[in-house]
Design brief:
Strand order of the largest sheet of chain A: 1-2
Low-confidence stretches of chain B: none
Mean pLDDT of chain A: 88
Oligomer: heterodimer
Radius of gyration of chain A: 19 Å
Number of strands of chain B: 0
Structural class of chain B: mainly alpha
Distance between the termini of chain A: 40 Å
Shape of chain B: globular
Helix content of chain A: over 70%
Number of strands of chain A: 2
Strand content of chain A: under 5%
Largest interface: A-B, 44 and 41 residues
Order of helices and strands of chain B: HHHHHHHHHHHHH
Number of domains of chain A: 1
């Protein structure tokens, strides 16, 4: 039985998918390859925040507190910033040792297989270091309240929605109002012409990695707060991320957000029908449907 | 002692040649046609499960269990792998290259879910047991049987290798390479890109499915965890290391990377403390990931690389 609660759950899941899908769509349109490492940026972001919180509690001897009805306190926000910085650095480091060399050689498909390899290596480093068991930022529970009749939402979940909306707005302003944003959009339109007007493609690439990595880290921490932290958490989001980016239209940030919300909704609404064990196949079906019916995506332009 | 070494060597070679077979299938898709298949494990799984369902004896809690001859199982595996590839290819091959990568990744995930959850068909997480061993009554003893199986696998690999060599050197193979290098030029000569790509994709996937069936009948059981994305990644590493676009490179890469994998497994087992043993496999994957990245950056041709094809009229 599908109820209004499923719709809300779908939107919440969709919000985190959106944050990841923005990174995927930016990498795809600006750096021109499908980045299979993006799911693992999400995981590494979550573990970076976990490590920062561990250091904090070890140094202060206290917990991470609680802010009002939330399950976490200010230290988690500090950990979020650490995670954002660490994941952006990770993305930049991978670009420096691996992706940049392949990009210069002009073999876009070699980039995809390289990202597939990097993804497995990153994920299994975490499996090796952490083991497969899930971890939590906090043992506190955020109490769910009845917001509308039949719809229960926790304060944590409202933070997820609010933070996602704020980040999308910030990215909108960055892409539309700053020189960097214009350079990024121009690179995705026509990379050759961009060089002619003196924009440094490497600087645009670095900015793309930093933005993608930062949003992935936020998504990882949000999943960690509302669900749990596991070495496979990001990899399992990878197919939904791709489905969302393609559904929205490659290159379109708003498309990625819309696609993310729709994929999240589709998963949440399908689970009561097909059963939770086939949840992961839902985004694959969405993907196939888009490729068959509208390969340029909802907000994309036909090739 | 000698017997132990021989037993290990035979076992190693059977598995290595099975991987080499998958690698040959991927080489037709990627090496010669430039098709990006990230779902190798899915097509291997389709072959393994199809042959298992067709050849195992009747089982009260499972469909299938038809008890058919192993040869029928292997043929069925190739047909099933080909049909799966036909469905995926028909949807994605006319789109951008990366979409094929994403879609094949998706189909491997979906196949993994079916293997895990469609208990009536696949046995669920416990998989399918007592898959018959072909020609088992013929020789006595484990080692002798494995040696016999090695001979069978070697013949299959040789036949597939020779067949693929013929194919890629034929006019059909020339069109594949032309499409890979410059689609517009090939299309302007009247070659239908989508049809050629689909043919190469289907044939390559059939070879992978056959490798899956060969693996299943050697080990004797299949389970979902045999077909994780790590398998896809191993096959890709084999092809890149050996040299994509070269079938001998694919064979060499298969055996060499499997040797490296086995050696790193033995190394982690002897170096890591007891408590960490279970996680040793994770470290192996990291090692292979680094090897792949290093080869991609430092030696993109791999060990052998593609041979330049020159017209015999120019060569003379």
């Amino acid at each position: 039985m599908i109820g209004p609660q499923d719709v809300v759950n779908g939107l919440l899941l969709g919000a985190t998918i959106s944050l990841g899908a923005i990174g995927v769509t930016l990498t795809y349109s600006i750096l021109r390859f499908a980045n299979f490492t993006h799911g693992d940026f999400i995981t590494w972001g979550a573990y970076a925040a976990l490590a920062a919180l561990g250091l904090w509690t070890a140094a202060t001897g206290g917990g991470i507190g609680q802010l009002g009805p939330l399950s976490f306190g200010w230290p988690l926000l500090g950990a979020l910033l650490v995670a954002v910085a660490a994941t952006a650095l990770l993305a930049l480091a991978l670009d420096a040792v691996l992706f940049r060399a392949l990009r210069r050689r002009g073999t876009p498909l070699a980039l995809v297989i390289a990202s597939f390899g990097a993804s497995l290596a990153l994920r299994h480093l975490l499996v090796f270091a952490q083991g497969p068991q899930p971890e939590y930022f906090t043992r506190e529970i955020s109490i769910a309240r009845e917001l509308l009749p039949g719809v229960r939402v926790t304060a944590d979940q409202l933070v997820v929605l609010g933070l996602t909306a704020a980040l999308v707005l910030a990215l909108h302003l960055l892409l539309r109002r700053t020189a960097l944003g214009r350079a990024m959009r121009a690179t995705s339109e026509n990379p050759t012409l961009v060089r002619v007007v003196g924009i440094d493609p490497d600087a645009v690439a670095r900015a793309t990695w930093v933005i993608g990595g930062a949003l992935a880290a936020v998504a990882g921490v949000l999943v960690g707060v509302t669900v749990q932290v596991r070495p496979l958490m990001g990899f399992e989001l990878l197919l939904p991320l791709f489905a969302a980016a393609i559904l929205g239209g490659i290159g379109s940030v708003y498309g990625a957000v819309l696609g993310g919300l729709l994929v999240g909704l589709a998963e949440a609404l399908a689970v009561p029908v097909v059963g939770a064990e086939y949840r992961a196949a839902v985004s694959f079906l969405v993907l196939v449907a888009v490729l068959l019916l509208r390969p340029q995506g909802l907000l994309g332009e036909p090739e | 002692m000698i017997l132990d070494v021989a037993a290990y060597l035979v076992f190693f070679l059977v598995v290595a040649l099975t991987y080499a077979l998958m690698c040959l299938g991927l080489n037709l898709q990627w090496g010669f046609t430039g098709l990006f298949n990230v779902g190798v494990a899915g097509f291997v799984a389709v072959g393994a499960y199809t042959s298992a369902v067709l050849t195992t004896p009747d089982h009260p809690e499972r469909w299938g269990g038809l008890g058919l001859p192993v040869a029928v199982g292997w043929l069925g595996a190739m047909v099933a792998g080909g049909v799966a590839a036909l469905l995926v290819g028909a949807v994605t091959l006319r789109l951008r290259h990366d979409y094929l990568a994403i879609s094949t990744f998706g189909i491997a995930t979906a196949i993994q879910l079916v293997a895990l959850n469609a208990v009536r068909l696949t046995g669920g997480p416990f998989g399918i047991e007592s898959i018959p061993r072909p020609l088992f009554g013929l020789v006595g003893g484990r080692l002798a049987y494995n040696a016999l199986y090695l001979a069978v696998v070697a013949v299959v690999v040789a036949v597939v290798y020779l067949g693929l060599e013929r194919l890629v050197r034929s006019p059909w193979g020339r069109v594949l390479r032309a499409l890979r290098e410059d689609e517009a030029a090939a299309a302007s000569l009247g070659k239908r890109a989508a049809a050629f790509r689909l043919e190469a994709f289907v044939i390559g996937s059939m070879v992978m499915a056959l490798a899956g069936a060969i693996y299943a009948h050697f080990i004797g059981y299949v389970a979902p965890e045999d077909f994780l994305p790590t398998l896809t990644f191993q096959v890709w590493t084999m092809l890149i290391v050996g040299g994509s676009g070269n079938n001998r490179g694919a064979l060499l890469g298969g055996v060499l990377v499997w040797a490296l994998w086995s050696a790193s497994g033995a190394l982690t087992a002897s170096v890591l403390p007891q408590a960490m043993q279970a996680r040793g496999a994770a470290l192996q994957v990291v090692l292979i990931g680094v090897v792949l990245a290093a080869v991609l950056v430092a030696r993109p041709r791999g060990l052998m690389g593609e041979e330049a094809t020159v017209s015999r009229h120019l060569r003379a």
